[in-house]
Amino acid sequence: MEKMKAVVYNKKGSPDKLIYCETDKPVPDNDEVLIKVQTVSLNAADYRSMKMGIIPGKKIFGADISGTIESVGKNITLFKSGDEVMGDLASFGFGGLAEYVTAPERALITKPSKISFEEAATMPMAAITALQAMRDKGNIQKGHKVLIVGCAGGVGTFAIQLAKYFETEVTGVCSSKNVQQSEILGADFVIDYNKDDFSKSDKIYNLILGINGNYPLLAYRKCLAPNGIYVMIGGSLSQIFKSLLFGWFYSLGSKKMRSVAAKPNRHDLEFLAKLLENGRIKPVIDRRYSLDMTSDAMNYLSQGHSTGKVIINI
Ligand SMILES: NC(=O)c1ccc[n+]([C@@H]2O[C@H](COP(=O)([O-])OP(=O)(O)OC[C@H]3O[C@@H](n4cnc5c(N)ncnc54)[C@H](OP(=O)(O)O)[C@@H]3O)[C@@H](O)[C@H]2O)c1
């Protein structure tokens, strides 16, 4: 059996349970491709699953990947050896934090040659989440006033840029250190949560994206315009539970309180890759790590204050 370097999950608990070691190089079956991984971007899905002891099928974390096809199974029609690809493997057992990973072709799209492996790896989960939240759950429309709470991380930095793409007026909420970045990404107004509380203002919004933080649902509801929509994307675990348990109750009336569970989608990813290729959106990369430093990267990300994306270059 051929070997490869990977970061393998050892036991429940802290990021130190990620072991950088040699393991068996995977072999694609007839319906899979083998990818030589170039870059992985980490997501909350990686460290939250790890903390909860939810071990991916491949025992290796890392969902968002970019890389080059090494070989293909005999039923593969969309790709051939040497093609550059990107995708989200969360629905297919993860496995990205390794030199090689196998995946079905429906998990992948061709990486546009104009975008780098690093840029490609930042996008799948974070950008699709932002897109599906605002377009599918939030019914975003030109001219809307949009509030993005938690606008500085992986999802938030894409959310600001996508909301501007949809020609809306964007207000972002983040800490002092990220105000300038949010303005550069296109936010029309930025509320520094270290100084101001968005819920104390009289301003109302057509769409609120709750990406991070832990605010009372009533605070969000108060800030919605009539027929406005709040979409819970993430935040503290108590924020998520509150939204899932009581969202329906606060949706009685014209204001709607929803949540999103983003689904990997080739069509959406191709749309986003095109926006990136055309310079309409640009990933923000906070930190780069090598594969053997994955524990440090996961530790940093789990503190919840990364500015944009954290990536691992294999
Ligand atoms: N529903 C879905 O399908 C889905 C998909 C992907 C992710 N998620 C969830 O979405 C959330 C964000 O993911 P992510 O990848 O963007 O995480 P991330 O990159 O770790 O987000 C970090 C950002 O959150 C901001 N933040 C932290 N505390 C905040 C607060 N109290 N108020 C406002 N902003 C705050 C930080 O900005 P400051 O440093 O300025 O505070 C930091 O820039 C996570 O909870 C994740 O689980 C959900």
Strand content: 25-35%
Structural class: alpha/beta
Largest sheet entry: 7 strands, mixed
Uncertain parts: none
Number of strands: 15
Q: How much helix is in the residues? A: 25-40%
Number of helices: 9
What's the average pLDDT? 94
Query: Radius of gyration in whole Å, from Cα?
Result: 20 Å
Q: What's the order of the H and E elements?
A: EEEHEEEEHHEHEHEEHEHEHEHE
Please characterize this protein's 3D structure.
The protein has 314 residues and is of the alpha/beta class. Helices cover 28% and strands 29% of the residues. The strands form 3 sheets. Strands 3, 4, 5, 6, 7, 14 and 15 form a 7-stranded mixed sheet that branches. The protein has a 6-stranded parallel sheet with strand order 10-9-8-11-12-13. The chain has a two-stranded antiparallel sheet with strand order 1-2. NADP nicotinamide-adenine-dinucleotide phosphate binds next to helix 1, helix 3, helix 4 and strand 9.
